[in-house]
Amino acid sequence: MEKYLSLCRETQKEVKRFLGLILFSFLALSVAAHEIDSLYGVFLSSKGSQALTAANQILAMADDSVAFTPESTTEAMNDKLLKTLIFWHFDRAEMVEVIDYSNKAIEIYRQRADLFNLAGCYNTIGVAYQRMGRLEEAIDSYNRCSEMMTQLNEKDPNPFYQKNIRYMTNNMAAIYNSMGEFERAEEMTLNCIDMMGELADDLDYQDMATYLQNLANIYLTQSETMDGQPKAEKIGKAVELSEQALDYSLSHNDRPGKIIHRRTTAARAYFAAGRENEAFGMLEEALQSAKDEEELFLQTEIELLYGHFHLALKQYKESANHYRNAITLSKDGHFDECLLNAYKGASDALRQFDPITTSRASRSRTPSSMKTNSDSSATIR
After folding, report:
1. How far apart are CA 227 and CA 234, in angstroms?
2. What's the whole-number mean pLDDT along residues 127-132?
3. To bridge 275 with a disulfide, which of 12, 141, 212, 270 should be the other Cys (CB 3.0-4.6 Å)?
4. What global pTM score does this model have?
5. What is the DSSP string of 240-276?
């Protein structure tokens, strides 16, 4: 008992410490972002050696091995800098800046009628909006990208354009699924499958595995809103699709990370179908693969899913242990959202394990400013 109460007390302390670390990290990132953005302002307002120096300082901050020379044109440097700044901010999850620089690039590409790079910018903006939760704007950007890729494909049919149209459709399907528009999500994912045509090589089978897995996820999410026979039918379809997706990935040399994702989706489907032993067996294989590949983030997601399964089965000690593992992994990898979800899961498990004692321990050690309810939950895809 004391072991689990100790974890509860640790959870309360770590939440406070974690919030402080977030603030510190945010301030440090803000300073770096201000510096690199200021350098871009210097580049735009300067000429000659001063502009060249500012441009190369930006590349150095972004750890880019390329360096501009006095022979580099302003246009070429600006093109390179905009792409560098977009990816630099993207890697730091600074999506407002990603959108801002992408829009700057769009102005340039529009003047050149560069449809290909315009499409790329709208795709990037769509991803940024999606991560910010601005889903309608994400859909609009993905649609723009898809329309431009369609125009390019009509002028010069190319499998690359066709693949990117599928990718945009798939991204939009994922958004509609998260919005609860299951029929639309299903329709768009089925369109992706239809667009595949006859599967010719390993890459085709790998893409098909992704669409089958995504369709399984749609059915699993939809089943949570249903009861009785309709629910059972959706779960049954999800099991079948997740198994087929995993088989395609295993048989056609898919990347280890993708195979791990297929296993976790299959585990969710088995668990929803009441096949707990198979679900845990699939998770065990996924976790071992994630360890072998040193995929720290995937290990964290799997530990969260373990915690969720045990919590649903009212196995509170086991649930708390897996959430504790997720806490450790999240700290090591600086996975902020996973860390918050792990703390919440551990708190839920401990509360169920001993609701009276845990509640007293929480009240006695939690500052009044932190006594708020969290709506966050572990979402495992």
Report:
1. 10
2. 90
3. 270
4. 0.74
5. HHHHHHHHHHHHTT--HHHHHHHHHHHHHHHHHTT-H
